[in-house]
Hints:
By secondary structure, the protein is mainly alpha-helical. The protein folds into four domains: 3-179, no CATH class; 188-350, no CATH class; 365-453, Serine Threonine Protein Phosphatase 5, Tetratricopeptide repeat; 483-572, no CATH class. It has helices at residues 3-14, 16-23, 83-92, 108-125, 130-141, 148-159, 188-205, 230-242, 249-264, 273-283, 291-298, 302-307, 328-338, 353-362, 366-378, 388-398, 401-413, 418-434, 438-453, 484-501, 505-519, 527-540, 543-562, and strands at 39-41, 47-52, 58-62, 67-70, 75-80, 168-170, 178-179. α9 (249-264) packs antiparallel against α10 (273-283) and α14 runs antiparallel to α15.
Amino acid sequence: MPRSDLRLLDRLRRSPRLAELAAFPFDFDLCRADHGEDVRLASGAPLEGIAGDDTGGTYFLCGEGGVLYADSEGRAGLIAESLADTVELATGLPGWRDHLHLPPETGEEELSAAAIEAEDSIRASYAASLDACRDELLTGLGLTPRPPAELFARMYRALRRTEPDHVLLLADEGSAYHLLDPHPRPPLREALLGACRADLARLRTDRAAWPTVAFSPVSGRSDPEHDANAARRAGVLRAAQCDRRDTDLPLMRHLLEQETLCRSEAPFGGMGEELHLAVFLVARRLCEEDLSRLYAARCANFDTWCALSDLPLGRPGKSGEDDLRWEPEALQAWVGALDTPEWFGDDPNSEPAETWVNLARRQGRTELARTALIRMLDDIGPADIGELPWIADEFAELGDFRQASRAQRLYVSCQDTDLARGFAHTRLSALERQAGDLDRAWTSLQRALTTLDGPPSPKPGPCQPALFDIEPPSADDDWRDKGAAFDLIEEHFQLARSAADSGNAALAHRSLITGTALLDTVQRRPPALYAAAHAAALACGDGTLTAHYADLLSQEEQRIAESPYDSGDDID
Length: 572
């Protein structure tokens, strides 16, 4: 918190007369600092309520400077860069909340007239000595009177900064307050594309800048961030998608070659949408000399080989480029099928929100991505339920497991089959565990098992014959045969470790024993499950299970080494 704000606040608190003047007639009352409900900033930055007004609103001092105002109707916004600016606003533009509807470009004459009207109303209603009170308060605090137009412009500069760093949340629920003013903000894509377009413009004019988007391996990082320049290159490709120029072909070839390198070096393979986009941007120029580049992109890894199987290259095999054949008509048709809003159209408005959120996160613009996700989650409707899984995943990538849990909790409630609901509970448990809410994570695991196993069948009454025979469920429908069953079992072991590490021995033991019992019910047990079980038993201090799983893990690893292609029964 800036020292200047602390000094000013201390002066107000130590001077009953100045505090009285601030409270009346300027409605900045230090005795009303309690907001009435627990709130926090989405960014996690410190927040302190310092004053309130007679409408139920609260002034908050933000940790890194700035004053946030939250009203009693679920709206909040940054109104000043400092406490001094806030007091000058409250005294120089009393009733400033009534001016929020005015557009930011309101002229000085109109604004002055509105301010004079508001002050005249205050003098006539309850504060005839308004001017004398203002002079005494500002002089006592060492502040300067400001004209209404300056205060209004300063307030709106602050309001525009509410997002993304000063978004106010209900602490328990996690939903966000609405913006304090009614004026629209630029969409996320515009906030991102500005920097992306600037990068593209620089690359177009300065070939010496091309290394800034070249593949740059980073050890110990997961895909796609095993490449230090992947996020910047992705932004340039998005800018080029929306601003296509024939003269960009050499640059697009360079970007394609770097994306090909990136995918070929990816630890876990994968296609990557940027590679697909780069192939499209090069292929659309229909140059025969690009055949080898397109072929190299397809050969980057197993996933790219499959995903680009429809790319017309003369149907070559993996043996080499000798079988490449130039088929311009087929390539043009391939490009045309992708040059649509659903794929790679040139209108950024047609790109899904996921594209821009993902790009913001990868480029390190964490609060921008978080704010967009929170707003989407708050506004989710029945038609948007399919968006919830990726919203939860993006929150998790940001490390915001509380919001990820909120999204997943809603997704669980929308599932209409026991199987889907049960496995959705498993994912919810993992997110709650990572959020540090271990008891709730255990509850979600119990619900997952109850949902998947179903309630016990009622026993028939003594004189109540069945109306028709009910066949028992097929063994093929057993949830334990599904791949997600491994996630459910492993989550028990992960929770056991977390509980043991936090000192909750009882929960750790329950989770370990339940996971052990579940592991015994599945036919094929991959080494990852044995490794998770061994780590959990070790964390819980269970020597018997630790030795047991160490032995099983060793046996399974030896079996795989001897028969590397024997993966066992197929798992759905």
